[in-house]
Amino acid sequence: MGTSGKIIKCKAAIAWEAGKSLSIEEVEVAPPKSHEVRVKIIATGICGTDDHVLTGSFPKVDYPVIPGHEGAGIVESIGEGVTCVKPGDKVIPLCLPQCGECSSCLKWNTNCCLKTHLCNPQNLMPDKTSRFTCKGKQIHHFLWISTFSEYTVMPDSTVVRIDDAAPLDKVCLFGCGFSTGYGAAINTAQVTPGSTCAVFGLGGVGLSVVMGCQAAGASRIIGIDINKEKFGKAKELGATECLDPRDYEKPIQEVLIEMTGHGVDYAFEVVGCLDTLTAALASCHMGCGVCVMVGVPPTDSRLSFDPLLLFTGRTLKGSFIGGWKMKDSIPQLVSSYMEEELKTDVLITHTLSFSEISEGFNLLRSGKSVRIVLLF
Ligand code: PAD
Ligand code: ZN
Ligand code: ZN
Which parts of the chain are coiled coil (predicted)? Predict the structure, then answer.
């Protein structure tokens, strides 16, 4: 390929500092070093987590940064020692690495690879340098994958080959949103047939939780959101009832306990707020309810609740990218999509060009979209 080994100039969206909107700039993307892969991103979704990066409420981010972590693309070139992909392969960048060597990767019951951003920030490549420069300045990576750049470099532990026939403008959702929500129900909660579930927050991730609860055979799925415009799609995907907490004088947990008689079997927090997390926990069955935290809480926040909520047997657990070991699982999920077992296209409400990225964030914040896919 003509570009292999050379610097590539392309468009990327940079967050110069927290609290400022993104600006589209020309960046220089250095070639991949040993055990790194340079990918041409074809499509990228916008996730609520990217919005947390813009507002400064995502932990351990260094600015200026190129966000984006829900992409799909084609390998442009590879560095020395890379064996898992080759130029021309269709791939999904992984926002949670699977190095295959650390103590977590060697355990069957966690996907939390010790190379994750939450252990060691992924703001620079593993050799502590950046592959991005703009106007002579070093720009940081985000989760090692920065999909808001037409070309991006990532370690080989954070990229996986997928089916050559997969439509990249659709399967990019498997890089985060869909896999996160669906896996929270299937893997983390292990929702059982006939159970009752409550899903707080019906964005792209929350609706994917609804899909997971339905696939697991839950008989009652109660969607909760302060934006009633989300209810139609939630019902289409399997929610049996939808509630707006603002329609009730009582706290929503009391409403849910009255509706179910004893509290729900599984509650999912998919907003990223401490108040909804406590409400989700309190709405679970006191003896055996399981509350799964999916939303990313604000940086440096602290949770405070009556410990008696746990004393009687409720469980509170977190779910990181749906509990999937991403290298092993994402290609399989994409195959299920190709076999029409997973109908994720319904989550995509808007497809825009990359230059319309700010409009995409406005749509996300206005609540008028579920998933927005940007095309380069
Ligand atoms: P989104 O902004 O599309 O959806 C959030 C939804 O919550 C919207 O529909 C809001 O109307 C709704 N909402 C807001 N406030 C309330 C409230 N008080 N009560 C009920 N509903 C409310 O975001 P998303 O679906 O892309 O992401 C949701 C969260 O999941 C967000 O915090 C994101 O950072 C997190 C996430 N976690 C992981 C993980 O690995 N755990 C991965 C990806 C995203
Ligand atoms: Zn995400
Ligand atoms: Zn690992």
Answer: none
Q: Which ligand is nearest to the CA of 52?
A: 1
Q: For the residues 5-19, what does the mean pLDDT come to?
A: 97
- Ligand 1 atom nearest residue 184's Cα: 41
Nearest partner of 156 among 101, 81, 90, judged by Cα: 81
User: How large is the average pLDDT for residues 138-146?
Assistant: 98
What is the model's pLDDT at position 1?
54
> What domains sit in the chain, N to C, each tagged with a CATH number?
8-175+344-375 (3.90.180.10), 181-319 (3.40.50.720)
Band of pLDDT at residue 311, cut at 50, 70 and 90: very high
Residue 203 beta carbon below 6 angstroms from any ligand 1 atom: yes
Q: Is the dihedral of CA 40, 178, 359, 58 positive or negative?
A: negative
Mean pLDDT of 334-360: 97
User: To test the ligand 1 pocket, which listed residue (55, 95, 112, 225) has its Cβ within 8 A of the most ligand atoms?
Assistant: 225
Q: Mean pLDDT throughout 126-150?
A: 98
Most distant CA atoms of the chain, gap in Å: 66
What are residue 115's phi and psi, to 5 degrees?
Answer: -90, 5
Q: How many CB atoms lie within 10 A of CB 258?
A: 11
- Per the DSSP assignment, residues forming a β-bridge with 36 are 155
